[in-house]
Design brief:
By secondary structure, the protein is α+β, with helices and mostly antiparallel strands. It folds into two domains: about 20-95 and about 130-300 and about 340-475, Outer membrane efflux proteins (OEP); about 100-130 and about 300-335, Outer membrane efflux proteins (OEP). Helices cover about 60% and strands about 10% of the residues. The longest helix has about 70 residues, at about 135-200.
Length: about 475
C-alpha cells in the first residue's frame, strides 16, 4: 500500500508539472500612469466602434461598409481564421479513439479446388492523454486560432483607417486642383494687365516675362496633382475590392469634414483596447502551451487497442458467433534514444516563447508610442492649421490690394508677383495641413484601438473549453 501511495504522489507530481503558468511578459505597473504628449481638449472619453462616422461623410460611411464585405485583405484574414480553427478541430479530435471498419471478399484456389473467403472486422485504438500532451496541443491550437481572430480584427481596423486616409487624400488633391485652377485664372488676369501695360510701353520685357513664368509655374502643377489624384482613387478602388476602371468619388473637397477630439484614457487600458496586443498575447500563450507539450513528449505514451471481426467461407454465415475472433491490448512506449530530437524540440519551444515575450513587450511599447505620436500630431497640426489660416487670410488681402494698385498704375509689378506667390503657396499649404490633421485624427483612433475591446469581441472563446472556435455568421456571409 505504501508503494502505491508513493507512486500516486509521483504521478500526481508529474501530471501537475505538465501544465505550467505562462510567463508574465509585462506587468501593469510597468506602464506609465498617463500620456505626456500635448492634447487637444476632448469632448468624449469613448471611441465608438463606427468611429469613421464622426467625420460627417456619408460617402465615407458607405465605402467603409462596402469594404467590410469586399476588401481582399480582410477576406484573406478571415480565411486564416478558418484555417486556424480547422487546426484546432484537428487537435481536439485526438481526444477521441480512432475507429475503422474493414470488409473483404476473396475467391482463390487451384486447378483442383477453389473457395471463397469473406471477412468483416473492426479496429479501435486510443492513446491515453495521461500526461496532458493532447490537451497542451489543443491549448496551443486554440490560442493560435485566437491570435488569428485578433489578427483579423487588426486587418479590419487597418483597412478602415487606410480607407479613410485614402478617401481624404482624394478630396484634398481635388481641392488643391481647384485652388490651383483658381490661381491660374488669377494669374491670367494679372498677365492680361501686364500685357496691356507692356503694349502701352509702361512695362518692360522683364515684368512681362516674370508674370508669364508665374503663370507657367502654376499650370505645371496641374498634371502632377491630377496624376496623384488618379493614383489615390485607384488605391481606394483596390481597398473596396474593385477594379480602378470606372471608379469615382463624388465629393470634391475637405469642406465639411470634421474630426471630434478624443481623450486617450489611461495607458494601461491599451492592453484591452488594441487587437494587436491581444494577438501578441494569444501567440505567447500558444507558444507556452507548446513548451508544456514538448515537456510532456518526454513521458511514455500509453495506448489501448482492440480488434475483432468475422471470417467465413460463406457470406450467409459470416456474422456467426463461431466465426468471431477478437484481440485487445495495451501498450506503453518510452523513447530511450532519439539523437536529441525531443530535447531540440523542447529547446526550440522555449526559445520561441522567449521570442514572443519580447514581441509582446515591443507591441505594447509601440502602442504607447503610437498614441503619444498621434496625440502630438493632432495638437501640432491643429496649431499649424490655425496659423496658416491666418496667413491665407492676410495673403489674400495683400494680393487684393497689390492687384488693385497695379490696375490703377501705382503698384509695383514685383509686389504683385510676391503677394501672388505667397497666396497661392499658403492656400495649397493650408489644404495639406488640414489633410495631415485629419490623418493624425485617424491615426489616433487607430492607435487607441478604434473602439475595439477584448471583452466585447464576440468571437472570444472560453479559454478552458477545448472545442473548435465557431466562425461568426457575419464573417461567413462576407461577399
Amino acid at each position: 500500500m505504501r508503494n502505491i501511495s508513493v507512486l500516486s504522489i509521483a504521478l500526481a507530481g508529474l501530471l501537475a508539472g505538465c501544465t505550467t503558468e505562462p510567463p508574465v511578459a509585462m506587468k501593469p505597473e510597468e506602464l506609465p500612469k498617463a500620456f505626456t504628449a500635448p492634447q487637444v481638449q476632448a469632448t468624449t472619453q469613448e471611441i465608438s466602434t463606427d468611429w469613421w462616422k464622426s467625420f460627417s461623410s456619408s460617402e465615407l460611411d458607405d465605402m467603409v461598409s462596402a469594404a467590410a464585405g469586399n476588401n481582399l485583405d480582410i477576406a484573406a484574414a478571415v480565411a486564416r481564421v478558418q484555417q486556424a480553427q480547422a487546426q484546432t478541430g484537428e487537435a481536439w479530435a485526438n481526444l477521441f479513439p480512432n475507429v475503422s471498419l474493414d470488409a473483404s471478399a476473396k475467391r482463390q484456389g487451384s486447378t483442383a479446388i477453389s473457395y471463397n473467403t469473406f471477412g468483416l472486422s473492426g479496429a479501435a485504438s486510443y492513446e491515453l492523454d495521461f500526461w496532458g500532451l493532447t490537451q497542451d496541443n489543443i491549448r496551443a491550437a486554440r490560442e493560435s486560432a485566437r491570435a488569428a481572430i485578433y489578427a483579423r480584427d487588426v486587418e479590419i481596423l487597418t483597412t478602415t483607417a487606410d480607407m479613410a486616409n485614402t478617401y481624404l487624400a482624394v478630396l484634398a488633391l481635388r481641392q488643391r486642383l481647384t485652388i490651383a485652377k483658381q490661381n491660374i485664372d488669377a494669374a491670367k488676369q494679372v498677365l492680361a494687365i501686364t500685357v496691356a501695360k507692356y503694349q502701352n510701353g509702361t512695362l518692360s520685357n522683364l515684368e512681362l516675362a516674370q508674370q508669364q513664368a508665374q503663370l507657367a509655374s502654376q499650370e505645371a502643377q496641374i498634371p502632377a496633382l491630377e496624376e496623384q489624384e488618379r493614383e489615390q482613387r485607384y488605391a481606394l478602388a483596390i481597398l473596396l475590392g474593385r477594379a480602378p476602371e470606372g471608379f469615382d468619388v463624388k465629393a470634391t473637397s475637405l469642406e465639411g469634414i470634421v474630426t471630434p477630439p478624443v481623450a486617450p484614457g489611461m495607458p494601461v487600458s491599451l492592453l484591452q483596447r488594441r487587437p494587436d496586443i491581444a494577438e501578441a498575447e494569444a501567440s505567447l500563450l500558444s507558444a507556452h502551451a507548446n513548451v508544456d507539450a514538448a515537456r510532456a513528449a518526454f513521458l511514455p505514451a500509453i495506448g489501448l487497442t482492440g480488434q475483432g471481426g468475422y471470417s467465413s467461407p460463406q457470406l450467409a454465415s459470416l456474422v456467426n458467433p463461431s466465426s468471431l475472433a477478437w484481440t485487445i491490448g495495451a501498450s506503453l512506449v518510452q523513447t530511450i534514444f532519439d539523437g536529441g530530437k525531443l530535447s531540440s524540440q523542447s529547446d526550440y519551444a522555449k526559445a520561441k516563447e522567449a521570442e514572443l515575450v519580447a514581441d509582446y513587450r515591443k507591441t505594447v511599447l509601440s502602442a504607447l508610442s503610437d498614441v503619444e505620436t498621434e496625440l502630438g500630431s493632432v495638437s501640432s497640426y491643429a496649431d499649424q492649421e490655425r496659423f496658416t489660416a491666418d496667413e491665407v487670410k492676410n495673403a489674400a488681402e495683400a494680393f487684393r490690394i497689390s492687384e488693385l494698385q497695379y490696375r490703377e498704375g501705382i503698384g509695383d509689378p514685383l509686389a504683385v508677383l510676391q503677394t501672388e506667390q505667397t497666396l497661392f503657396s499658403s492656400e495649397d499649404t493650408l489644404v495639406q495641413i488640414k489633410l495631415a490633421r485629419l490623418e493624425a485624427g485617424i491615426g489616433l483612433y487607430r492607435a487607441l484601438g478604434g473602439g475595439w475591446t477584448v471583452a466585447a469581441d464576440k468571437d472570444e472563446p472560453t479559454r478552458n473549453e477545448f472545442m473548435p472556435l465557431p466562425l461568426p455568421s457575419d464573417v461567413l456571409s462576407m461577399k
